[in-house]
Amino acid sequence: MDEAGENSKGAVRGETIAYFSMEIGMVEEIPTYAGGLGTLAGDTVRSSADLGLPLVAVTLISRKGSFRQELDPAGRQIEHPAEWDPSDLMERLPERAKVGIGDREVSIAAWQYILESPTGGSIPVLFLDTDLAENAPEDRGITDHLYGGDQRYRLKQEIVLGTGGLKILDALGFHIRKYHLNEGHSSLLALELLERCGRDAEKVQKRCVFTTHTPAEAGHDKFSYDLVGELIEDGEKIEMLKKFGGQERLNMTLLALNLSMYVNGVAKKHQETSSAMFPGYQIHSVTNGVYSYRWTCPEFRELYDRYLPGWANEPELLVRVDIIPDDLMVEAHARTKRALIDLVNRSTGTEMDPEVLTLGFGRRSTEYKRPTLLFSDLDRLRRINSRGEIQIVMAGKAHPEDLQGKRLIEEIFGYAEALKGEIEVAYLENYDMALAAKMVAGVDVWLNTPLRPREASGTSGMKAAHNGVINFSVLDGWWIEGWIEGVTGWSIGPEPGEQLSFEEGGQRDLDDLYSKLEYIIVPTFYHRKDDWVKIMNNSIGMLAYYFNSHRMMRRYVTEAYL
Fold first, then answer.
1. Looking at CB atoms within 10 Å, which of 48, 220, 442, 443 has the fewest?
2. 459-493 per-position pLDDT tens digit
3. Which residues contact 475 (CB under 8 A, 6 or more apart)?
4. At 275, is the secondary structure helix, strand, or coil?
5. Other C-beta atoms within 10 Å of 19: how many?
6. Domains along the chain?
7. In terms of C-beta density within 10 A (0-12 exposed, 13-18 middle, 19 or more buried), how is residue 120 classed?
8. Is the pTM of this model over 0.90?
């Protein structure tokens, strides 16, 4: 076989970028994503296909998916397996790879999903699978559950993803130019490369790109060397892991940092936070973006197609949004909003009104996202409502092990009951990409209230902006870069650089949230429609034109891949 390699179908491959991610959200029918990381990975693949980039994506099959969420009348979350059959949507390739896990060799196969772009490009997405007859029963389940099980299960998955993924690419004849590690889950591929490069770390670094998404110390995967020794029995490998991944415990982020030439955070603020967490490393910033066509609702796509032809592959054309007549934009949003409100009323039994100012909040239910901040003072919320009606649409899953996240959903159900007959509050179950697309397009204001600096980037607000929905958010992640007060939306709480205690910051957030709702947002929506429409325009022309994954991928190509 020549250097370029040849796949099982006989096609010679050129140099390729291998993009590794534990989760990739391609379509709703493939439930192998849990949230923002997987959705971003899916947008990355879509933009790569549109732009004709030579890229292959590698992930796990997650046969039992993440989970399907059911909420009982009290808001208690019930998790159901999201099982699916990959044979309905993709092809299993005949090639196999083997990795050592403990005292056994585990066989790995790959299912191939081909993402076709309207521009003619295509990207193969490889879903790794250990559910093979030749494997022991315990090993057949390694690729079943996304982020499931204990530390042992997680480390097995990361061996399959990193080491197994690299070997599958070899078996398929890919000639890889760069390995892009999307988060630290696939870092063990760098260990495999290290062995192949005669332990020359500099050679490995030149081939690895690492994107970190986690600004919280607890979010980085760490494993005890007792466990690592049980699953990776090679003593020389353990010594290399200790050298590059930490002496006390194996830190997957540290392993990737030490063996990647190009490292980046996913927003400018996140780059600062990451540099403070890992001093001594050069960490760049490539602010995330979203795939414009996927996240723009049909009503706005039609407008953009008519007035800004070519926008889908050149989202920067959205900067010219002012040529779209305001009345057409208002009507497009009204139709989209009406469809969402109908869905909400059918699903939850609420009596929402499409004429009422609608706030949206959709993201994973966890403490640092503060989904209940809006309900901190119900009397204040009632007062705001008396000046101009509001209604609230929310959604989000809690991780099965996140008991506090589950309690937050129950609390919101309690607040909804307390406000019944005054302010309509709906919490939609089983938040996924399809529901997210309806919400980010159908509400009037997109609310985001994370604890600073816990939001690495955040992309839901970018999706909202593509649909003329206005952001109202804490200044963290991408919003620091997109925010111009009263022009592109509104901020919540202190500006970056203000030194406040945790308690002072929290109080400022709350004061700002209620004050701006009462004195700016509600009056503008009901009494200054021209001003409102101008901010809708700015959301598209100043935010969507830039915060998209086409721009993001061009940055990766010029700064990391070449």
1. 220
2. 999 999 999 999 999 999 999 999 999 999 999 99
3. 452, 483, 491, 492, 493, 494, 495, 496
4. helix
5. 27
6. 15-289+552-561 (3.40.50.2000), 292-546 (3.40.50.2000)
7. exposed
8. yes
